[in-house]
Amino acid sequence: MNTIEFGKCVVPVIGSYDTVIVGGGTAGASAGISAAREGNKTIIVEKSLSLGGAAVGALVNPMMESFVIHEQNFYEIENRLKEKGASTRDGIMNYVYSTPENKASVLEEMFLEHNGTILYDAMLSGCTKENDKIQAIVVATSDGLKAVCGKQFVDASGDALLSRMAGVPVSIGDDEGFNQMTSYRFEMGGIDVDKYRKYCLELEDEFSPLKKGYFWESAMVKNKRFKLEPLFREGIEKGLLTEDDLVYYQCFSIPDAPGCMTFNCPHISNMKRNMDAMARSEAVTQGRKMIQRLVRFLQQCMPGFEHAFLIREAAALGVRESCRIEGKYILKEEDYLNRARFDDAVAKGDWYIDVHSSTKGLVHMDKYEKGEYYEIPYRCLINNHVKNMLTIGRCISTTFLVQASIRIQPTVIDMGDTAGKACARALKEKIELADFSGKGLMER
């Protein structure tokens, strides 16, 4: 097939594949690696210029702690990051931690080693569907509209964009339709991290009581009695900050980057609907002004930042949550509380319910002990409307609160790993993804 009809356009086809993955974030890249490793002709279509999604473009580092036994891709990613100099799970802290560039490099290397194809700089614009199966996706490229045909499709877009285009119903936000808060992260260099750490410890700041090693984490949440809040209040009095700047502040040291820290802030607290295109654009301009204020405040007021400077702002917003598909099973709070097990499990989750609410502030609920976990069933990845598609990542079928647990990188890497295996095995058995049992995908 050389062309397809898309509306009133005739669109050139640039390739046909067994598995077409929309979105090369940690979930999509992991799915691509597994599908290609098991023999599927696989392409990842990515709107940016790197794999890694939010972990790379939005500077979402480090991966949060997870104590479950993971799948193959997770450990291979970690081992390759170590080969590039990353310090992960070193006995002092339990994060898997690297620079964004190293993570992007590792994911790309792993996928290409299995003969995968990547189409960078391509934005999903639509799809063609016949009955209950997607036939092709249409993407906007530097060479105009192009089509990619496939036998199977994986929506790893982060916003369930392909799922929605194909007619899959979604749920948005909490009971009021409001999403979790979005961040706009940045990095700074020239920091005397030891001086900053000493200052926090002298305040008896117990948020991150680490007195040794390169790693340092610091935070302040408005009106939560953090020891750094009085200094931030002084910043308001001096006209350096506004009340919105105090909603959430957090930073981490960066491995292999002495004197540098990455900031999990500012929070864009007034953006309550994260899929609104204009709201996202306005969040960028608002977040940039907030970053400028935070940098100026840190330089003038925070010990250790006297000679610090802004390295870069993120190339993408840090969107925690936007929408969730209505799948064949909805993972609920009861499943989380009961440490649910499923015979079609695709991943284990052990992160707590971690809600950055746009209306209620930071909400942490029902933390697990080490060794405890729940499972995510394959049925959360499939739906009743499209036979040949999986949805993976933060947009799977869950409630609003449970989504706040499943969204971390270790969990979605495992989910992508098993999703890729499902694609390969369903194709070999000549079964549509929606009819595949999902049993036996988790191998560890």
From TrEMBL:
Domain of life: Bacteria
Keyword terms: 4Fe-4S, Iron, Iron-sulfur, Metal-binding, Oxidoreductase
Pfam families: FAD_oxidored
A GO MF label: oxidoreductase activity
Tagged with keyword Iron: yes
Protein name per UniProt: 2-oxoglutarate dehydrogenase
